[in-house]
Amino acid sequence: MDLSAAFAILAGLGMIGQWLASYLTHQIPELATEPYRIGFHIAGEMLTALLLIAAGVGLLWGWPMAPVVYLVAIGMLIYTAVVSPGYFAQRGQWAWLGIFAVIVGLSLVSAINVARGLMG
Predict the structure, then answer these.
(1) Averaged in consecutive runs of 10 residues, what is the pLDDT profile of the chain (120 residues)?
(2) Which of 10, 27, 58, 70 is deepest in the core (most CB within 10 A)?
(3) CB 114 within 8 A of CB 67
């Protein structure tokens, strides 16, 4: 479970870091053209990131509810990793599709690992 916890924490921090870097380098043109849509999208991703970090820390600290929270957070991550590549594909940034595929794969493996722990 330690690897699953580390994955969740790193994924959450990575999501926050990616959005922060995009914002600081003015790479979110939708803030001007579609502020409501991108605002809700970013809020959803920040909620996912924070839940991933909390679940990962909870697993490491032995919080009893952490595995359940982890599975919810990983489900949220899988959703965003399946939906988000369309944006990058539209812009011709194909490397991101590979990154998201790896994230989905690692998410599934870690979810199975944590779910097995719940079953005893």
Answers:
(1) 94 98 96 97 98 98 97 98 92 93 97 91
(2) 70
(3) yes
